[in-house]
Write a structure and sequence with these properties.
2 copies of one chain form a homodimer. The first copy, chain A, has 395 residues and is an alpha/beta fold. Chain A has a domain at 4-119 and 218-235: Thiolase/Chalcone synthase (Peroxisomal Thiolase, Chain A, domain 1). In chain A, 36% of the residues lie in helices and 18% in strands. The first copy, chain A, has helices spanning 22-37, 54-58, 63-70, 87-100, 120-128, 143-158, 162-176, 190-195, 265-278, 295-304, 313-318, 335-339, 343-359; strands spanning 4-11, 46-50, 77-82, 107-114, 205-207, 210-211, 220-229, 241-250, 287-289, 373-380, 385-393. In chain A, the strands form 2 sheets. Chain A has a 9-stranded mixed beta sheet with strand order 3-2-4-7-1-8-11-10-9, with helices on both faces. A two-stranded antiparallel ribbon of chain A has the order 5-6. In chain A, strand 5 and strand 6 (210-211) form a beta hairpin. Chain A is globular, with a radius of gyration of 19 Å. The two termini of chain A are 20 Å apart. Chains A and B meet through helix 3, strand 3, helix 4, strand 8 and helix 9 of A and helix 3, strand 3, helix 4, strand 8 and helix 9 of B. Strand 3 (77-82) of chain A pairs antiparallel with strand 3 of chain B.
C-alpha cells in the first residue's frame, strides 16, 4: 500500500439547516475541503459520499453521481457508501484503499445527512432500521433504547453512575460551545442537570437511565476530506496529515447474541488494528474523537481503545483526564453529543476535527498543544461495524 | 496495483421471490459464490454489498453489517455501495481496489435487490428517485419515460426502427429461456410482437415508442463474486478469471444538459478506460454483457463501446452479429431484458455470467466457444455513472 495523506478538510456548521437540502450540505462541505486543498473543479479522480438516509429521509438516491455534476467534477468516478452511523469512516476507508492501490490519486470523501426533513419519531425509526429486523426491530427497540440497556449493564458491571455520565455531557457541551461547527452551542452546568434530574421539562428521561443530555441531537450537516498519495502531498497548500493506521471490525447484529453485551469487541479490534498498523500504542495518541452518540459510549470506548483499563474510564472523566490538557483529550470538538450527529457526516467530521488538531489550526482553548497523533472511533449499528483511524501529523 | 482475480461466482434465480426477504437473497447468492470458491465461513476479509433500495423498499439499513453476521463472517469488514443501477459494478470496483491495494486478500462482493416488496408504481418511483430532483423528478419523469425520449432521438438520428428493437427483445428472451437464472423464461416470436403491436393487452406501450417487451422486468434477485489476488488464485477450486481492466465515468445528472443526448459519453469513456487498462480493443472481446434495461440501450451501448460504428448497431442485430456465434455475442444470458434487473444485483450478475463464459462452464447453446475475454457495461442513472469491466480467462 502506498502511503496516503489527507490534504484538504472542510465542514459546515451542523444543526437545523432548514434552507439547505441534502445536495446543498454535501456540496458546501465538499467545496470547503476542495478550497482547503487549493483544488478547483479539476483534478479529482473519484468521489465517495457517506450517507445513510438519502432514500428514506430525502427520497433521493444516487446522490454521489448527482454531487459530481453539482461540483462539475465529471467524469470523476462516484459512489455512495453506507455503513449506518459509521458510513463516514467507511467512505474514508474506501477512498484510502482506492488511493493506496495506485488507481486514483485525488479522492474527495464527503459525508452528509439531512435528518430534519422528517419529524422526530421518524428520525428515530429511520436509525432503528439498522437493528435486526426480526430479532430487534419488530419489538420496537430503538438505538436510545439499546443504549439505555447497555448503560444499565455497564453501571452494574463497572460501578458507573449517573454522575459520571453527567460529567461527560458537561465536558462535551462546554467544548461544543467553543466550536463554531457544533449543533449544540449552550453550556450546561452540573447544578442545572442535577437539579432538574427528575424534571421532565429540563432533562427528561429518554431511555432510562439515559436522559436528554446523554443523547446526541438529530442534526443536519456534512464534512469532507481530500485524500492523495503522501508523495503528492507537497503539491497542496496545507500540512499533510497521514492516515497512519486503519481498522474495521464487525460483531453480531443482534445485541442478545453477544456473550457479554458490555464487551464492545469490534471497538477493541478496530482500534487495535489501526494502532498496530501505525506502530503506536494508546499512550502515544495526542487527541481522540470517540463516538459519543450516548454519554456511556465515550466512557466505554475510552476503555475498549485502551486509553484506560476496563472500569476506569468513568473515573478518568471525573479526574479530568479526558479534558483538553488532560492525559488524553477526548472529543475536544464537542463530540457527537454537542457537534451533532448527522449520521453519514459523523465519521468524516471526526477525521476533519483531528486534521485541524494535527495541523495546529485551532484557537487556544480548543487546540491540543503540539498534537502529533489522533485516533477516531466511528461506531456503526450498536457496535456491530466499527471503523477506527490513527492519523499522524506529516512533514 | 497487484492483479486481482475472480475466484468464485454465484447467483440465484431472478424473478418474483415472494418467500425470500432481501437478507435471504444476499445470503443465498453469497453462499453460492463461497461454495464455488471452496470457502466456508472463514477467510473472507471484507464484504461489499451492492444495493439501492434496502431503505426505501425494505425499510432496513446497514445490510452489509447484517450480512456478515448472517454468514458468520465476523469480524470481516463490511459496507454497502450505492450507485443506482450500477451499484453492482461499483461494489466490484471497490472490492477490486481493496484487494489491489494489498490491504485485503479475500473479498466477497454481493449485489441484491428485493423490489417486489412494493407495488408496480412504487418500484418505478423508487427508481425515479435517482433522476434530478428539481430538474426532472418533480415533473414526473421516470426511467422508462427518459428511455422513450432517448429512443425517439436515436431513431431520428440513426434510422433505428421498431423492427430493430423487436429483434433485440426476441434475441434476449430466446437466450433468457435457456438460462435457469432468468426471470423471463418465455420466448417471444416476431409474429407475436408485431401482430399485437397496437394491442394494449399483449404488448402495451410503456413510454412511446417503447412497449412492454422493450423494458426489463422488476425483479428480485442477487449475485455474488469472490475476489482474491491473482497470485493466490491457485488456492481456489476453479479457473480464475482476471479483472484485466476497469473503467468508470460520470456525465451530467440531468439529460437536458447534454449537448447531444444520444451521445452516452460515460459509456464510451468507461469502456475505453477498461479496454486500455486491459490493453485490448473491442474486436478482441469474445462476449459482452451490456445494460439493456431498455432494448435501445443494447444497441446504443454496442456502438458506444466500439463493437460497431455509430448508427450501425441496429443493423448488426438484424444481421445476427450480436447473437451467440455472431461477431460479438451480446447478452447471451438474456440480459436485463430477460434475466431481470434487481437493481443492485445487475452489475454483479453481468460479471458472474461472464465468469461462467470464460470458465467455459455453460452448456452448448449458451456457451461462447473458446471465450477468452469478456466486457460488461453497467449503466447508472440514465448514463450519468457508468462502470465497465474487461475480464480475461486466467491460467
Amino acid at each position: 500500500m502506498r502511503p496516503v495523506a489527507i490534504v484538504g478538510a472542510g465542514m459546515i456548521p451542523f444543526g437545523r439547516r432548514d434552507d439547505d437540502n441534502l445536495m446543498d450540505l454535501l456540496a458546501y462541505a465538499s467545496l470547503n475541503a476542495l478550497d482547503d486543498a487549493g483544488l478547483g473543479d479539476k483534478g479529482v479522480d473519484s468521489v465517495y459520499v457517506a450517507n445513510m438516509g438519502a432514500g428514506m429521509l430525502n427520497h433521493q438516491m444516487s446522490v454521489a453521481s448527482a454531487l459530481v455534476d453539482r461540483l462539475s467534477l465529471m467524469p470523476a468516478a462516484a459512489e455512495a457508501i453506507e455503513n449506518g452511523p459509521a458510513s463516514g469512516a467507511s467512505a474514508i476507508k474506501n477512498g484510502l484503499l482506492a488511493v493506496a492501490s495506485g488507481y486514483y490519486d485525488v479522492v474527495l470523501v464527503v459525508g452528509g445527512e439531512k435528518m430534519r426533513d422528517v419529524s422526530g419519531w421518524r428520525a428515530t425509526d429511520f436509525v432503528a432500521s439498522m437493528t435486526h429486523p426480526t430479532a430487534e426491530y419488530i419489538y420496537g427497540i430503538t438505538l436510545p433504547g439499546m443504549a439505555g440497556m447497555f448503560t444499565r449493564l455497564y453501571m452494574e458491571k463497572y460501578g458507573v453512575t449517573r454522575e459520571h455520565l453527567v460529567q461527560v455531557a458537561i465536558k462535551n457541551q462546554e467544548m461544543g460551545a467553543l466550536n463554531p461547527y457544533a449543533h449544540v452551542e449552550s453550556r450546561i452546568t452540573h447544578e442545572g442537570i442535577v437539579d432538574s434530574w427528575h424534571s421532565r421539562v429540563n432533562n427528561p428521561p429518554v431511555a432510562d437511565p439515559l436522559h436528554l443530555y446523554d443523547v446526541c441531537p438529530v442534526s443536519d450537516g456534512a464534512a469532507a476530506v481530500i485524500l492523495a498519495p503522501l508523495d503528492m502531498a507537497k503539491k497542496f497548500k496545507k500540512t499533510p496529515v497521514v492516515i497512519a493506521g486503519f481498522g474495521q471490525a464487525t460483531d453480531t447484529h443482534s445485541l442478545q447474541e453477544r456473550q457479554d453485551p458490555t464487551d464492545l469487541k469490534a471497538v477493541t479490534l478496530a482500534s487495535q488494528q489501526a494502532l498496530a498498523m501505525a506502530k503506536l500504542t494508546p499512550s502515544d495518541i495526542s487527541v481522540a474523537e470517540l463516538h459519543d452518540a450516548f454519554t456511556i459510549l465515550e466512557i466505554a470506548e475510552s476503555e475498549h481503545v485502551g486509553f484506560f483499563p476496563k472500569g476506569q474510564g468513568a473515573q478518568a472523566v471525573i479526574d479530568g483526564k479526558t479534558k483538553l490538557g488532560g492525559q488524553i483529550p477526548i472529543n475536544v470538538s464537542g463530540g457527537l453529543k454537542a457537534r451533532g450527529h448527522p449520521v453519514g457526516a459523523t465519521g468524516v467530521a471526526q477525521v476533519v476535527d483531528l486534521v485541524w488538531q494535527l495541523r495546529h489550526e485551532l484557537p487556544e482553548g480548543r487546540q491540543v498543544k503540539n498534537a502529533q497523533t489522533g485516533l477516531s472511533v466511528n461506531f456503526g449499528g450498536f457496535g456491530n461495524n466499527v471503523v477506527s483511524f490513527v492519523l499522524r501529523r506529516g512533514e
